[in-house]
Amino acid sequence: MQRLEKIRMRVQKACVLAGRDPSAVTVLAVGKKHPETLIRALFEQGQRAFGENQLQEARRKQLQLADLDINWHFVGQVQSNKTRDLARHFDWVQSVDRIKVLKLLSAQRPPALPALNICLQVNIDREPQKSGLLPEDLPEMAQMTTEMPGIALRGLMAIPKANTGDRETARSFHRVRMLYDGLCAQGYRLDTLSMGMSADLETAIAHGSTLIRIGTDLFGPRPMKREEATE
Fold first, then answer.
1. Cα end-to-end span (Å), the chain
2. Helical segments of 30-82, H only
3. Strand, coil or helix: what is 131?
4. Buried-most residue among 61, 67, 118, 198 (CB within 10 A)?
5. What confidence tier does 227 reach under pLDDT thresholds 50, 70, 90?
6. How far apart (Å, rounded) are the C-alpha atoms in residues 154 and 135?
7. Which domains does the chain have, with CATH numbers?
8. Residue 180: closest CA among 122, 125, 230, 229
9. Is 114 helix (H, G, I), strand (E, B) or coil?
10. How far apart, in whole angstroms, are the C-alpha atoms of residue 120 and residue 63?
11. What is the pLDDT of residues 43-90, one digit of tens each?
C-alpha cells in the first residue's frame, strides 16, 4: 500500500473514533531534505499541500515544480531577513511568533496576491529551546493581526514536548485547543489548528487538529549526507 494511502486511512479511522468528518483534516506533506521527484509523485497521487522548513531548499523546489498547482506552507523558524521571500512565494506561514515578523510579512506581501495565511506558533510546553509564543502572549499577537493588511490569521500551530508519553501529549494538545477556542469565542474567525505529526496524529485529531504535518511516513527516511553514509 502506498504511504499516502496509509496516512489517509489513519486519518479516516482517527476521525471516525473522534466523531469528526475526515474531510475536515488536511494532510501537509513536509518534504525536508527530500527531492523534488518525490513531491511530484505525491502530487500525482492527489496530495496538494506541501510544507518546507528551510527557505533556500523550498525555493529550489518551487522553481523545479512551478508547473504544479501546489499549496506551499512554510513551517520552519522564521528569520526576519527571509520574510520577503516568504511573503512573495508561500501561501501559508505557520510559524509566526514575533511582532517584527508579523509586520514584515504584512508589509512585504505583494498587493496582487491573496492575503498570506498565517498561524501563530505557540510554545505550549514552555520549552526554552523551542520557538513559539508563550500562551499569555497570544492575545496581543492575535490582536495585531487585525490591524495589518496582506495577512489573514487562520489559526494556531504547536509542537508539544517530545518523548513525554501519550497522556502528556494529549494534555498539551488539549491546552492548544483551549487557546484556539478562546480566540474563536472572542470573535476571531479561525479554521486551522495545526498540530500532530506521524507519531501522534490520532491524538491530535481527537483534540481537534485540522492539519497534520507528516514527513517520514510519507517520504521515507531522510537521505543521509555523503559523510554520514560512509562512516
1. 33
2. 36-44, 55-64
3. coil
4. 118
5. very low
6. 17
7. 3-218 (3.20.20.10)
8. 122
9. coil
10. 27
11. 999 999 999 999 999 999 999 999 999 999 999 999 999 999 999 999
